[in-house]
Design brief:
439 residues; Serine Threonine Protein Phosphatase 5, Tetratricopeptide repeat; transcription; transcription regulation; RNA_pol_sigma_r2
Amino acid sequence: MGDEQRAESGTPIVAAQQTPARASVEAVFREERGRLLASLVRRFGDLDLAEEVTSEAVEAALLHWPATGVPARPGAWLLTTARRKAVDRLRRDQAYAARLALLHLEAERADPAPPADADGELPDERLQMFFTCAHPALAAEDRVAITLRCLAGLTTPEVARAFLVPPATMAQRIVRAKKKIREARIPFRVPGPDELPERLPGVLQVVYSVFTEGYTASSGPALQRLDLASEAIRLARILRRLLPAEREVAGLLALLLLVHARRAARTDPDGALVLLDEQDRTRWDRPMIEEGRDLVVRALRGGPPGPYGVQAAIAALHDEAADLASTDWPQMVALYDVLLALTPSPVVALGRAVAVAMRDGPLAGLALLDGLAGERQLQAYHPYQAARGDLSHRLGRLPEAAAAYRQALALAGTEPERAHLRGKLNAIAPPEPPAGARR
């Protein structure tokens, strides 16, 4: 089987009809796939082999479970079946087996395997996969792709749809990432205590990148990709279970929950964008907000704050306010000051400028935005120009506002964002009628 085919393997369910047994397999597979794959990679040291025998184990489940019923420990059943199929495959290919044995020996020396679970439950070794998929040796786009493929359980076509690229392009990215992992001998292990502070931010960034694409898609007809945002939250929950003492993991999960809680109010029934000041806050997900607020407390307690914890605190201030006007803008600016000190970036400075405008007025905010005009990172970032347009509009500087809205319109990625900006622009600078319509 070639690398391109291997990247496409692992599609769990591909039948038109969804029988009860098939639905059970799909539910188990979606929940257990990451754990199953991580355990197999840990044992055999090869991601391609692990994906192939995982798929074969699922096929075996589809064959046997309708007759015998879903086992009491379905994950353990799948793991046992996949291990047997891997051993059979290695027996047939001695050269391949010798190479894997060498890789496995190196992995054992670097990170001895944990003892087997006495009751046969599937061991949870996904944390190793998180750090492997987010290894700094991989290109940033490849980290996101292989994390979605291996840990979120998305098929290659699903990952491709998430980022609006052809399946063949995404398959190449996944193949490239696997090849890099194999050739660079990237270890399947959790970094030691001395490495963890340096490596963990990369893992969190991958999950956050998945969420931001789901929260506001980079392009396409819809503002949100709720399926992708939900997968990011699921990944963050897994990390939270695996690293319960890491405050920034709690901060990331808090941030995702507090922002995702507004999902139902961010668009109207026709899919049009609804800004924060116009949203129906009764539609916000209050249980999700409460969970997020509890996590913020955990993220900020016990030491200096981290960037995700501070961003979560900012999101919590928005979620706690009855409306935009009653938001605690002085506290918001203070939190942005902390965030800017932790992660100096033009995007954070933009957020702070908007908060200052709400606290001190549009003129103060616009002055800060003018100071960011030379930042290259903001040149293709349409929220920067949209903010300039809004503040100029509030000051009555309509030509400046129109110019900023036009620039934002040219940069916006999704149709709801473009439609919103066209409405803003037309309100202050209506388009001229066609020449034939003039009298």
